[in-house]
Amino acid sequence: MSAPRVRCVGHPTFGRHDELLSPVRRGKRLLVREARALLGARDWAAAAERLEVLRREWDRLGSAGPRHDEQLRQSFEAAIEQFERRRPRGNDEEAGP
């Protein structure tokens, strides 16, 4: 049995958990927005490459906290899945949706 976590009032981060996670949430929201914007891409190859960069950035950002991370992850993955469904197969040149 593990000991309960004690919140130390004198600790510099006491009461600032949401504030500290806020930049991660903000970053992930921007990544979701950018992934959704790629749905209108005409250059599918460039858009697919950009999505790979966004995925790496997503992983680099880490957790946005348990209350927010799952919803943000679902939004991000939904945008990627929608992109993959619309993306032409075979020829990744400038084919439109």
Report on this model:
There is one protein chain. The chain has one domain. It has helices at residues 17-37, 44-61, 66-86. The relative contact order is 0.17. The N and C termini lie far apart (55 Å). With 97 residues, it is mainly α.
Give a concise summary.
Helix content is 62%, strand content 0%.
Annotate the secondary structure layout:
Blueprint: H1 17-37, H2 44-61, H3 66-86
Helix pairs in contact: 1-2, 1-3
Main sheet summary: none
End-to-end C-alpha gap: 55 Å
- The residue-averaged pLDDT reads 80
Task: Note the run of SSEs as H and E.
Answer: HHH
Secondary-structure content class: mainly alpha
Instruction: Identify low-pLDDT runs.
Output: 6-11, 92-97
**How many domain units?**
1
Alpha plus pi helix count: 3
Beta content comes to under 5%
Radius of gyration: 18 Å
Please state the overall shape, judged from the principal axes of the Cα atoms.
elongated
The percent range for helix content is 55-70%
Features:
62% helix, 97 residues, mainly alpha, disordered C terminus
